[in-house]
Amino acid sequence: MLLSACSNYAAPVSTRAQPPSIRITTHQVAVGESLYSIAWRYDLNFRLLAHANGLSAPYSLSPGQRLTLKTTGISLNDRPSSSSSTVVKATKIPSTVVSSGAIKPSVKAPIPFKKKPKPEIFSKNWQWKWPIQGKTVETFSPAKLRKGVSIKGVSGSMVRPAAPGIVVYAGDGLRGYGKLVIIKHSEILLSAYGHNEKILVKEGQNVKQTEIIAKLGSKGTLYFEIRKDGYPVNPSLYIK
């Protein structure tokens, strides 16, 4: 009877303490990943991520290396420290480790957004351009977790860079992006081109706006993003 009486007086759900949310603070490097793809995955500024882990260009990583994701409060003017317990000394290998092994799925993280960032124009000889000709079928919408835009072109459309730069990632290791190309245009601006059928460039390759970087499949739909200091921004602010 005593046990029965106790079971009838369980604490209401509304009075129970909320379990603490799990916040990811470290990342273990998997095959096929680069510093840029990891920063992209967690919506981080790649320079701050490198600085937090005592890494310098070309940001070489090793499989199994553990990186800290804590970049809040870090200044690029501070001297980087490699003594952190979360940092494993990188060996002299390419910044992306290529292997046939599976890539770990991405983890969603809160996305901070800046309001109306000022577009950047780097040269009088060129301006931002759309990577393919077509109709925007999904617009930039942070509230709906759409960090970029989807552009509907024709089957087999050729994808070109929105601006000149260097390829810093080419692969299919980020869940939801398919075959993805990330291009670095400056120390603060990068762009991404996802859902390709075939990638036609390699990491470390310099590309002009006239060059073909990828080919779309039969659906002819490209997913396109621009990020400034690690934050997704509306491509329409850059491309008229």
Explain how this protein is built:
The chain is mainly beta. It folds into two domains: 22-101, LysM domain (Membrane-bound Lytic Murein Transglycosylase D, Chain A), CATH 3.10.350; 135-237, Glucose Permease (Domain IIA), CATH 2.70.70. Helix content is 8%, strand content 22%. The protein contains three helices and 13 strands, in the order αβααββββββββββββ. The protein has helices at 2-7, 35-41, 46-52, and strands spanning 26-28, 66-68, 135-138, 149-152, 158-159, 165-171, 179-184, 189-196, 198-199, 206-207, 214-215, 221-228, 231-233. Strands 3, 4, 6, 7, 8, 10, 12 and 13 form an eight-stranded antiparallel sheet that branches. A three-stranded antiparallel sheet has the order 5-11-9, with no helix packed on it. A two-stranded antiparallel sheet has the order 1-2. A hairpin with a 2-residue loop joins strand 12 (221-228) and strand 13 (231-233). The radius of gyration is 21 Å and the shape is globular. The model is unreliable at 3-7, 9-16, 80-95 and 98-115 (pLDDT under 50).
Q: What portion of residues belong to β-strands?
A: 15-25%
CATH architecture grouping of the largest domain: Distorted Sandwich
Low-confidence stretches: 3-7, 9-16, 80-95, 98-115
Gap from first CA to last CA: 76 Å
Number of beta-strand segments: 13
CATH homologous superfamily title of the largest domain: Glucose Permease (Domain IIA)
The largest pleated sheet is described as: 8 strands, antiparallel
CATH C-level of the largest domain: Mainly Beta
Discrete helix count = 3
Helix content: under 10%
Q: Would you tell me the structural class of the helices and strands? A: mainly beta
Mean model confidence by pLDDT? 79
Overall geometry = globular
| Sequence of secondary-structure elements | HEHHEEEEEEEEEEEE
**Domain tally:** 2
Rg estimate, integer Å: 21 Å
CATH topology call of the largest domain: Glucose Permease (Domain IIA)
